[in-house]
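Researcher: Predict the fold of CAAX prenyl protease 2.
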Amino acid sequence: MNETNNTDKMFEISVIETVPRVSKIITISCCLAMSILYVSSLYIWNNKHNRDHPATVKRRFLSVSVVMLVAPVFLYSFSSTELMEKVEFNELLGLRWHGLLMAILIPYLLTMLLFLGPLCVELQSESQKMFFDFEFWKSSFKNILWIRNHVMAPLSEEFVFRACMMPLILQSFSPLASVFITPLFFGVAHVHHIIERLTMGMDFTAALIISLSQLAYTTLFGFYSAYLFARTGHFIAPFLVHAFCNHMGLPDLQELWQQQLWKRILLICCYIGGFVGWVLLLNMATLPSVYNNKIFWPRQCELFTNNTLSCTV
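Model: Structure tokens for CAAX prenyl protease 2 follow.
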């Protein structure tokens, strides 16, 4: 017994860590190329309308759809051959059935907890009732700007910046490093909005401040989204969370301050409680075992003296 304990080894490993590493230069170059391709696709049209004009939105839908077809080629072409033999390509993209229901429900509920304060503020205005109104959903799906903000933008951005980039980054860097690297491409890709604001006549200083604020917000969200993808191994998790965050936007603290004193104190407690609860539950709610994720996040493994390997997620 003592001899076994001395020779057995405990360590953490994921499927993606059992294959040869991809060059970091190749990985970074591919992610940079995908970022440039995504942003460039928004400006290839000779269009005099602003970004919210239906003609502009429709053309950009087409552009990013093409990018979504091209981006997986980078992942397929530059991934480790051994990894491609061990994992189906659709699973590498986070498109799989195992753990799908949990990937839909748990990250979404976890993110609602994070936004507990703003959600409670919305309840004060009874605006939540519209989500149970069929006419609201009917009109929303006829509104091209609503579709852009809640469907096409989250779908295309999460597919390119998470489903296609993360599996590549994870082949060169550790999971935690990957979570912090990938969002940098995502955040910088949103800086282009400063050009649109300037063309609309906005003051440079104001445009810069707004764009930098958006850069900070999108980068922070990118950390969370990348973490969800790596931990759950599902594309659906960051996609739905992205759509929800687009709906919520940044918290409206001005509306919070307009409440009566006792309501304001209660709502502030909701803000703080929601954030603290999110922090405490984040690790537990994203356990890879819940989502049957054996690909991206390390599993606890034990190497026995007879060279057999036993792993638990």
